[in-house]
Amino acid sequence: MTLQQLKYVITVAETGTITEAANKLYISQPSLTNAIHELEKEMNIIIFNRTNKGITLSKEGDDFLGYARQVLEQAAILEDKYKHTPGGKKNFCVSTQHYSFAVNAFVDLIKEYGQDNYDFSLRETQTYEIIDDVAKMRSELGILFLNEFNEVVLTKILKSHDLSFHPLFTARPHVFVSRSHPLAQNTIITNEELEAYPYLSFEQGEHNSFYFSEEIFSSSERRKNIRVRDRATLFNLLIGLNGYTVCSGVIDENLNGSDIIAVPLAVDDDMRIGYITHKRGMLSRLGCSYLEALKKYFI
Prior knowledge:
Helices cover 41% and strands 22% of the residues. The longest helix has 25 residues, at 59-83.
């Protein structure tokens, strides 16, 4: 197995066709096909399923791809450190629930490492997809929260995927409302006071279990519910409908605007926000730098 073969596999997976991958790699199609066949034979796996309609990643190929990406990233770091030459394009991906501090840390990372040649990804996505991204090593890190309600279920799921949870900080639940909301001047808000207003939350797709919710107390019964996919839509609806959501309370005016504020919620619970990693993985320099950038926003 060579680094070149790993690059070939990743390029084919990204382009979806041997023809396009060969053009991108500046090699002939037969050479590319043979290189992949040799790798599959050596590793005793089928990376791509071949059909008349083209090729698709097999299940074990999808797992293999996660490890391949990590190997190439570590090789690039070694070249950068010891050969004192750029080790190729820097790659980094993080998957996260909808947190402004995760975005801010990502910006800091790019400012530090994103020079002329990089390929970084920030995936604000659903909870189950965060777990799946890290399990298949599409993402080096995943950011989510645990609390009394979801901890047993999520910890079991993380364990079954060989993932570890690392706490970052503990947050008291807050309510996000618009600055013009009737309850905005309160020093603390109760659940009873919120009953008349629309409750906004991030939908979780086919894995729409209470345990995957990004909002604490997701299982509580509410008369008015609105589910959205992205943070911008949620904040627009908070302002336009006098809605609210329950969150960590960490907010960034520069990123989210000055029209949204956080008010403490009168409940006895907390959110343990942290990051997940693969037990068989190793944090890259970029991963470590991202974590250091994260800590600046809540320490």
